[in-house]
Design brief:
Elements lengths: L1 E6 L8 E7 L2 E7 L12 H4 L1 H5 L9 E3 L5 E3 L2 H19 L4 E5 L7 H13 L4 E2 L7 H11 L6 E3 L6 E5 L3 H4 L5 H10 L4 E5 L12 E3 L6 H14 L5 H7 L3 H9 L3 H8 L3 H13 L3 E5 L1 H4 L4 H14 L9 E3 L37 H6 L8 E5 L3 H4 L3 H4 L1
Parallel strand pairs: 6-7, 6-14, 9-10, 9-12, 10-11
Antiparallel strand pairs: 1-2, 2-3, 4-5, 8-13
Helix pairs in contact: 5-14, 8-11, 8-12, 8-14
Length: 398
């Protein structure tokens, strides 16, 4: 047995792990108590890393499809040479745009995306299809308009915040924040801190919240607009922060002052008093933050939701400081800035759709293969992804 320390790669928190290995087998997995952030915390995903590392279905060598449909083992040299020759032939005959990639890494390990970016560059292609193209690109597009680049992302400093809003997420189960269950417990126990959950469902996180705004499904935009309108009408916005760091407030203010607050609240089904309580509480907090996820990004008004969510911490000055929302750094940027107003940014051949953060949505891929004529996609590399299982319209993919 060999003892070592490493980090989990199954979500963006990358918690520290203390492991014992027997060859390639992970014999024991525990949280690393000396890790400066996770401090020994570990969830069930990390505990099952051995299942993924040495699953019976995991391939250990290349397999090549034969004419009769069978897959037979081949050497790495054979496989790589064959792939390179085929890709070179397609690029020479049809150009780089006849090539695309799909996937590119998981939640906490995006190295696959870095490799795919290199091969797209070698092929001269911009065609990058990823599940993020249907999960997060509305949010990325808003980042481009608000902060100047689609590849700069906000994160939330939940640990230092005294007023936390969880919007469309359930960190008790999905994690996504450091030491999720311990952090939720700490907020719940502290009388000086407030936890708000906005979710149609009574989630495990909602059960721990001080306030649960149980809105009707897909009415998030109405609720957020009403709360922002309350903040502006009651003068609870941070005028000094806005004057120093923001532009265009007058247009936003006019829009929010025109919001029919009572009508919007009625659409959500949330008690009016609770909406006012949360709007005022967040605006007056020393340090407030919002954690959002797929609940508002896989729903109606997803791009608008992303914009309204960011207005909360910008208007209230809970941005760029401890306990608020902040722009995080990246060791190696995987995404990019592909503003559709830039004439150098190319669209897809059939749908004429522009990428956001360099990503195209999987839902258009079958048409780009089947319907784009001479400009169709003729070759793909799929990495860390299973389109037939996870992407929509399996019959078309088949």
């Amino acid at each position: 047995m060999t003892a070592d320390v490493t980090a989990c790669i199954l979500c963006s928190r990358n918690c520290g792990l203390s492991v014992e290995t027997d060859g390639r087998r992970l014999a024991r997995i525990k949280g690393d108590p000396n890790h400066p952030l996770s401090k020994g915390y570990v969830c069930q995903k990390a505990a099952r890393l051995e299942h993924y590392q040495n699953n019976a279905d995991r391939l250990s060598q290349p397999l090549q499809r034969q004419a009769d449909g069978r897959f037979v083992p081949v050497s790495w040299d054979e496989a790589l040479t064959d792939i390179a020759q085929r890709l070179q032939a397609i690029r020479s005959r049809h150009g780089g745009q006849a090539f695309a990639t799909a996937g590119g890494g998981g939640q906490g390990n995006h190295m696959g995306g870095a490799y795919l970016a290199q091969i797209r560059a070698a092929m001269g292609s911009h065609q990058n299809y990823n599940s993020l193209g249907q999960e997060k690109t509305g949010d990325f597009w808003v980042n481009g308009r608000l902060f100047g680049r689609q590849d700069c992302h906000t994160t939330e400093d939940v640990e230092e915040s005294d007023y936390v809003i969880f919007l469309g997420c359930n960190p008790y189960q999905s994690h996504g924040i450091p030491n999720a269950r311990d952090t939720l417990k700490a907020i719940k126990k502290d009388p000086a801190r407030t936890m708000v959950v906005i979710d149609p469902r009574v989630t495990e996180t909602a059960k721990q919240a001080d306030i649960h705004l149980q809105l009707k499904p897909s009415t998030d935009a109405y609720l957020l607009s009403a709360m922002l309108a309350i903040i502006v009408r009651e003068g609870l916005h941070d005028q000094a922060f806005i004057e120093q760091h923001c532009t265009g407030f007058e247009a936003v203010e006019a829009m929010l002052l025109s919001v029919p607050i009572d009508n919007y609240i009625a659409r959500t089904g949330v008690p009016e008093a609770d909406v006012y309580r949360v709007a005022r509480g967040y605006a007056r907090a020393r340090a407030g933050c919002m954690r959002v996820d797929l609940g508002i990004q896989h729903s109606l008004h997803t791009t608008l939701n992303g914009y309204l969510e960011k207005l909360f911490y910008l208007l209230c000055g809970h941005f760029g400081k401890p306990g608020g929302n902040n722009l995080h750094s990246s060791l190696i940027p995987i995404l990019s800035h592909t503003d559709e107003r830039n004439p150098r940014i190319k669209s897809s051949a059939y749908h004429q759709m522009f990428p956001v953060s360099g990503i195209l949505p999987p839902n258009i891929l079958p048409d780009e293969i089947l319907q784009a004529g001479e400009d169709r996609i003729r070759a793909m590399i799929v990495d860390s992804c299973n389109p037939l299982l996870t992407w929509a319209d399996t019959a078309r993919y088949e």
